[in-house]
Design brief:
By secondary structure, the chain is of the alpha/beta class. It contains five helices and seven strands; from the N terminus they run αβββααβαβββα. A hairpin with a 2-residue loop joins β6 and β7. α2 packs across α5. The N and C termini lie far apart (53 Å). 25% of the residues are buried.
């Protein structure tokens, strides 16, 4: 019985932070792969969240062949949760490799932001925003589906 109580209490912070359709997203600031700060603001229309390397690879595959600034022109922001990645691997290999991408990756190194938006680890979470408010939420498990959805967003 004590285990159940501890489990429920440990999940309360996650439930308390989960955002619902119609709610305003709290602003946050993360560094990208170039150590440039980005703060979520009312201009963002699409927030993509990847909680695993597999999900991040879906985003990369969906954006392959697109010109630099493609995601930004659609007012899209990509957050990658890399807190499970060993810091040395991230510093020496993963983040330097991301510098060749033609889009920005907001790096959630300490899992401060991604847990606010619960979803499956193996899928890309798509949060549709309108002036900072969540208006829709979707999940994508293939790069083709994600690419098609991005193409529907008007720059």
């Amino acid at each position: 019985m004590r285990f159940i109580a501890v489990a429920v209490l440990s999940l309360l912070p996650v439930w308390a932070q989960a955002v619902e359709v119609g709610e305003r997203l709290a602003p946050w600031t993360l560094l990208d792969q170039f150590d440039q700060a980005y703060t979520l603001n009312d201009q963002a229309q699409v927030l993509l969240v990847a909680r695993s390397m597999d999900a991040a690879k879906l985003v990369d595959a969906a954006l392959q062949g697109q010109p630099k600034g493609y995601l930004e022109s659609r007012r899209g922001v990509f957050v990658a949760d890399i807190q499970r990645m060993p810091r040395l691997i991230a510093k020496l290999f993963a983040v330097p490799a991301m510098r060749s991408y033609n889009y920005r990756v907001m790096l959630d190194r300490d899992a401060r932001i991604a847990p606010r938006y619960p979803g499956p680890v193996d899928k890309v979470l798509w949060l549709q925003l309108d002036n900072g408010k969540l208006v829709a939420q979707r999940e994508y498990s293939t790069a083709a589906e994600l690419r098609q959805a991005l193409e529907q967003v008007r720059p």
